[in-house]
Design brief:
Rossmann fold; alpha/beta; 7-stranded mixed sheet; homodimer; globular; 6 helices; two-stranded antiparallel sheet; 11 strands
Chain lengths: 169, 169
């Protein structure tokens, strides 16, 4: 079973590392995609190796897509290849988990109208404008979309990802 | 069920956050102890709130002790109260999990002679001098002591902590 993390320079370090390590702990294979292959660096200086690119990703290869926050989503959302992947996941009703600024990518992919979810308080107005019923909860599960607000929500975020993967298995 | 993390200023951020979030995800209550109550700051700038002190900790209240790395263990090991807690956990055969520089605290507590384990490569000579049979593995489980070398080992480290807690439950 394989999961995909889509991120870029300036990611919120704990929002990449905690789900990444959690998925590896559970025995999943995890690919990290960015604009180019190679190391990407978080706001706090952690480096993670992108082993694939937005262009090369084939959505059908994965059971789950994780979109962490930080400043990365503003870079990810301008990649048409990244948006193509998000649209495919949502169309196929596959698991998409976003945290913090992660929903910025989903807004640009045009996949949030009529959905329930949450995100970083500083982008909640943009989420509302995109048609989301925004809730102030540590985690919101709306069908295939799991969303959380911030790093402190990571225990609940990871718990719901693991629950959803358990169901998919 | 309750777990205790003992750390201080200069902790390796991911080595506190990943186990902390993992234990919370599993529904455990987690106390963080330091020399004084209040926020402690990691090498990468993350802050974690110490809600208790080495002096106030009663080892019998906890099922597991986690000792993360970074520069924190050199501060923790000079606290007699912290060493008292480590000694009690080891005497009672309760779960102790150390990663990276964490074993420095256990060396000062004098509890490692004759044990098998691992730690950051830069302190492996000190571990050997303290009587440890050091192994170059992502995680070593020696009875009640679980040990890992570095942040990249966190998936295996957390997996063994959860296995051990599952047995204790």
């Amino acid at each position: 079973m394989k999961a995909l993390i889509m991120s870029e320079e300036g990611f919120e370090d704990s929002e990449v590392l905690a789900p990444y390590y959690r998925l590896l702990e559970a025995g999943l294979e995890v690919d990290v995609a960015a604009i180019s292959k190679g190391p990407i660096t978080g706001k706090h200086g952690y480096q993670v190796e992108a082993n694939t690119t937005f262009k090369k990703v084939r959505p059908g290869d994965y059971s789950a897509l994780i979109i962490p926050g930080g400043r990365a989503p503003e870079r990810v959302r301008i990649s048409k290849d990244a948006l193509r992947t998000v649209k495919q996941f949502m169309k196929d009703d596959m698991l998409v988990a976003s945290i913090c600024h992660g929903p910025q990518v989903m807004i640009s992919a045009g996949v949030l109208d009529g959905r329930k979810g949450t995100g970083w308080k500083g982008i909640q107005d943009d989420m509302k404008a995109a048609g989301v019923r925004v809730m102030d909860k540590e985690v919101v599960v709306d069908g295939n979309w799991i969303s959380s607000r911030q790093p402190e929500d990571l225990p609940a975020f990871n718990r719901e990802i693991m629950n959803a993967i358990g169901i998919v298995k």
